[in-house]
Amino acid sequence: MATAAKGDYYNLLGVKRGVSTADVRKAYKRLARKFHPDVNPGDASAEERFKQIQEAHDVLSDAKKRKMYDQHGFYSDHFQPAAGAGGAGYGGFDFGGFDFSEVTPRGNSFRDIFSDFFTRFGGGGAAEGAPGPQRGSDLEYQVEIDFWEAIGGTVRKLTISRQEACAVCRGRGTSGGPAPCAACGGKGKVTQVAGPMRFNITCTQCGGVGRLRTICRHCNGEGRQPQAQKLEVRIPAGVSDGSRVRVAAKGNAGIYGGASGDLYIITQVRPHPFFERRGDDIYTVVPITVSEAALGARIEVPTIDGRALLKVPTGTQSGQRFRLREKGAASLRTGTRGDQYVEVRIVLPKVLDERQKEMLKDFARLTRDDPRAEIYDAAAH
Ligand SMILES: [Zn+2]
Ligand SMILES: [Zn+2]
Predict the structure, then answer these.
(1) pLDDT at site 162
(2) Count of structural domains, the chain
């Protein structure tokens, strides 16, 4: 049970005296992986070495303990000057093998340092290293659809990568029942020897509980793991470019029993050559002839429901815009439809034969208006 005479903590971790706490931790992790009893079953010397490097790390990674160690060449939880004036000196300090039963577990939870193998068996007391349920994060996927899919809705088969609850431990992160803590042999305390002194201190690995749960190796104790999942996602009618469609609970699984996050489908809508979508409204450009514009006409224009009649009034100018009520897209939120705007553009006929030319000349003679009169006036100074 007593730890053997040990070397210098710095030597044990293979670091220099001025080393940073981060590097202490790094060196410890590297060595702990190598000497952990779980990877060296039945190897007593590895186990001994493991205990020593744990102890070295425990002291050197804590600024206060390390200072004491640097000054005195050893560290003990029970050899600390009392705080404040008139204190009781060195409380609890003794030279014999003394069992201090009331020892507070300290920081450095095993899970933090070395989460791959074990976690504390959550006994009574402050359950450090035993975090509560956490909701899984949301996921976002972009899906490209065409204009008509956005108008009418669609179903897409997707393969997404999400964190799912581990199939082996079903999200618990642990496997099997609690096993005795290897560091203290299940006693919850370890004996430290510092020169002539021996101390029983609370095992830092199990927090004094003496038992540890085995971490699920399948998911490394996370309780979840990334998995490709095939989904059929219904994209509702009315989505537009950049819409977010929520698929409940298909985000990452939560950990330690937390709920799953949501999946958001972000729609990218490919533009249509004729219908231009702006919000729930649709914009179109429709050519009309000179005579339709001058004399007025009823023309057929394409809408998303098929053709609709548009009345072009007498004397319509090129670029004038007309509205077809509720011929736009259905609103994703309310279901009510937007409008379609029709901009007319006058196209000139191809004038080829002599009779057409004569008629246009006659028309010009009959039409005395100068279309540039207004701009001459406006431009004069
Ligand atoms: Zn698992
Ligand atoms: Zn222990």
Answers:
(1) 93
(2) 2
Which ligand number lies closest to the CA of residue 176? 1
* Ligand 1: centre distance to CA 200 (Å): 35
Q: Whole-angstrom Cα distance, residue 266 to residue 64?
A: 52
Q: Please tell me the distance from the alpha carbon of residue 107 to that of residue 200, in angstroms, as a whole number.
A: 17
Q: Cα of 51 to ligand 2 centre, how many Å?
A: 10
Lowest-pLDDT range of 176-180, 210-214, 259-263, 302-306: 176-180
Full domain range(s) for residue 258: 139-172+219-269
Measured in Å, residue 48 CA sits from the centre of ligand 1 at: 29
Percentage above 70 pLDDT, the chain: 82
Angle at 369 between CA 366 and CA 374, to 5 degrees: 175
User: Would you say residue 124 has pLDDT above 60?
Assistant: no
Token pair listed for 360: 């246009």
Question: 352 and 332 in contact (C-beta within 8 Å)?
Answer: no
pTM assigned to the model: 0.56
Which CATH number belongs to the domain containing residue 332 in this structure? 2.60.260.20
More confident residue, 216 or 88: 216
Q: Are 70 and 33 in contact (CB under 8 A)?
A: no
Q: Return the closest-CA partner of residue 150 out of 277, 247, 339.
A: 277
Is residue 180 one of the residues assigned to a domain? Answer: no
Calculate ∠ Cα 233-235-236, nearest 5°.
140
Strand 340-347's sheet: what is its strand order?
A: 276-278, 281-289, 340-347, 321-324
Q: Are residues 314 and 373 in contact, defined by beta-carbon separation less than 8 angstroms?
A: no
